[in-house]
Amino acid sequence: MRVVVPEPSTTARPHRRRARSIGSVVSAALLLPLTLLGLPTAAVGGTLGAMAPVDPPVESPTVLPRPVSVEHDADADPFVLTPDSRIVAAGEAAEAGAFLASVLRPSTGYELPVVTEGGHGADITLQVGAEHAVEGYEDSAEAYTLGSGADGVVVSAASAHGVFNGVQTLRQLFPAFVEHDEVTAGPWTVPAVSVLDSPRFDYRGIMLDVARSFQTVDEVKQFIDSLVQLKMNHLHLHLADDQGWRIEITNEGRVEGDDIDYTRLTSVSGQTAMTEQGYEDEPGRTGFYTQEDYAEIVDYAAQRHVVVVPEIDTPGHTQAALHAIPQLNTEGAAPEPDPQTGVPPAHGTGEVGHSTLDTRNEVTYTFLEHVWSQIAELTPGPYLHIGGDESHVTEEEDYIFFMERMIDVVEDLGKEPFGWNELALADVHEGNVLQMWSAGTAGAAVAPERVNENGARMVVSDAPRAYLDQRYDGDDPEDPDDSVSPIGLSWACPDECTVERYYDWDPQELFPDVNTEGFLGVEGPLWSETVRGIAQAQWLVLPRAATVLEIGWTPQEDRELEDFFGRLATLGGRLTLQDHNFYATPEVEWAVDAAGTDQHLRAPGTAALTVGVVTAPGTSADEVSASVDLGDGSEPVPATVVATREGEELTVNGEYLLELEHTFAEPGTYSAVLSVTAPNGTTTAPFTVTVLGEEPTPTPTPTPTPSVTTPVAPPTTPGGGQLPATGAPVALVLLGVAALVGTGARLLRRRHTRG
């Protein structure tokens, strides 16, 4: 058997901003002295030993997006992850195995080695190969099957992408607290299910506009992680617009006669952004990606089977380029340059349609060929997005001339051109992609013909139903000014802008004349006029992105609104535990969930304890109550509910710690249960409390003499057993443990705020 050790840079779980408690450290610290004492490690309980018995879950599994087929045997024993479990993943499955291990290890505390060969039960096996192609979906690189039961879990696919998709489903089949970054009590079960799954569309994307307000590399990674679990497979990065330019372009490789200083794109327009419309008047955030930064994002996405689609919007939405590069401000460009500077001023408002490159001047194409050649070199994916929307000051004839030139530029680089639906005005080629955003805009009417006759493909981003920057609806749907959203726009969705609206549509019904094979997929764009930072981006995107991604994954005939809301209810707790922000819309009865935290005390007495964690999205601490039966024969004890983060208008406040003080009279291992009541329901969770006996006093070893050696019998434990002959060193270890878990020790509270 060979153990596969993942590279930390490629598979490590993203860093969480929550300060860690000492609970798992205490458990590990106790394990060593108990082993030295000759006691079974089961005595410490929980993830390192005995666990309070619970019945296996019998409710139907909830997965987003809904798989093609799920068969659940409620009468069969579930799979139970144990400290002895392994992840068996060889060859192309190894990266998915390492990813899964990075999810499961922090919450379970288990080693979970990733190995290349199986050997016993209770393992999770990931397998990739042509022999694992899914029957009926042999042409899909993303199809997979998943089977689970008492003997183990097996995820199979013909490709690494397929098995990675299966891993995302497996994450959701585990209890939600598998997403926690600290050890909780479990149990870690997967219901006995058989899943067969494959996507409806090949393209399921979300767009992030970093041009109007910048997002850092780490923020983009967090954005990816929040969405990949919902099977997003394309990230569209809007890198340049009127307000800013966000990717480094160097002067290396300039053609003869090109005197443009491309570094000005970021040294000048990397420092500009929106100047209005931010929450509490915060301006847009500035910055840019070096080419190394961009490559890091692309690589991080690729490890999660996400294709990055870079966009440089042209010929309109180009004032940032015109502001940075004097040579672009020729006669046909707009707006007119300032006579003093030779360039137009920076643009920080949300106004659109006022700028254009000079489509009839060769300097424009010299510039764009250089820009796209560098971006293409950095982008392994097949698509380059050339924009094309809202070019209101570009004459139609000039626009068509420009876009047809740009189609050739991109295709000459070995890439597929991608553009907003206005691109359909041009003579697009087979395989070119039209992103349909508004039926009332140029090119929309002719787009179906371009798909059916030219062989173009269609990605649907219908603005009233898919634009994720639109604000959430308020209490009065008749009043467009009444909104719960302090951020977001309303031009595309002025009222009834709800999760229901975003779910209840079908892209193929919008374009009934388009051949089925002409639909590449769907995308939900997030424009950033009002967005500042990743928390605000996620607040607008989630949970609505789940609707767009399910439309892209699940067959239309299998989608049903109430069923979706029921499955969506479980997502909130997972996002909370993952530290992803979202809007806890009142449309959804968010599930209440809890996990116990095993307790380890060195002696009877009074102790202050943090006994569990609760997720209840959309609530406040004073709406949640809890009582705890500590299993020692005493009456249930009320727990104090403490929020782990400060709730604000644009951040979720739905995670709580349960704290109490209790006196344990006798040593023992107690099976405890906490019970939680919140506005949306109740839940229970088990944990164990292990109370050791009084600390033993070691007997000193007499100083030996040259003539006599006096053996010393090992001291006895309070229970009558003998300590191993380790003497004072054992006592020192116990004293060290006492410093961590002495009576009254309190787990550190994980209070924090979102950035």
UniProtKB/TrEMBL annotation:
PROSITE patterns: PKD
GO biological-process terms attached to the record: carbohydrate metabolic process; glycosaminoglycan metabolic process
EC number of the protein: 3.2.1.52
SUPFAM superfamilies, per the entry: (Trans)glycosidases, beta-N-acetylhexosaminidase-like domain, PKD domain
Active site per the UniProt annotation: 390
Keyword Transmembrane found: yes
Entry-linked Pfam families: Glyco_hydro_20, Glyco_hydro_20b
CDD domains: GH20_SpHex_like (cd06568)
GO annotations of cellular component type: membrane
InterPro entries per UniProt: Beta_hexosaminidase_sua/sub, GH, Glyco_hydro_20_cat, Hex-like_dom2, HEX_bac_N, Ig-like_fold, PKD_dom, PKD_dom_sf
Recorded catalytic activity of this chain's protein: Hydrolysis of terminal non-reducing N-acetyl-D-hexosamine residues in N-acetyl-beta-D-hexosaminides
Keywords recorded for this protein, A-Z: Glycosidase, Hydrolase, Membrane, Transmembrane, Transmembrane helix
Transmembrane segments: 728-748
Recorded GO MF terms: beta-N-acetylhexosaminidase activity
Domain PKD: 596-691
Family: Belongs to the glycosyl hydrolase 20 family.
Official protein name in the record: beta-N-acetylhexosaminidase
